[in-house]
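Hey, I was hoping to borrow your eyes for a little while. No rush at all, and the record is pasted right below.
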Amino acid sequence: MKTTLTPANLRRIKKVKAAVIRVEPYGNDIVVFTSMETLVHDAQFVFDTEVFKPEDIEDGLYYGLAFHVPTELGTTFCMAFNGDKYREETIWHEALHTTIDVLNGHGVNLTPDNHEPFAYTQGYLVSQIRRKVFGLPEFSYDD
């Protein structure tokens, strides 16, 4: 499947301790940054371009953020929040923004009779964040 992350991006992602979540069948990699305090620097380091100016993200104003970065291979979708505390409302909130961005990018639009792709994708993102960022169990139908 297509990726928008280069091997250099992947090495840098590991260095800043971000996570990558692959969303199939859409073929998108979502980069999850886990520090709002260092987000400006981390995003610039990972993508080797200025993503934000420091004044764009006022210290302490945001609990989380969903954004995308144009790269040479396409658009990479990203989420950011503080990974030192499991703030479930923020994770679900940013996962919804990211879900809408990813699915809209594939021509799947949210309509009154088209909720399922969005619900499944949002739940998948949160489940993967629980596992990859917080070391918590993924959601399971066996619960």
Observations:
- The CA atoms of residues 40 and 55 lie 9 Å apart.
- The longest strand covers residues 64-71.
- The first helix runs from residue 7 to 15.
- Helices lie at 7-15, 39-47, 88-105, 116-132.
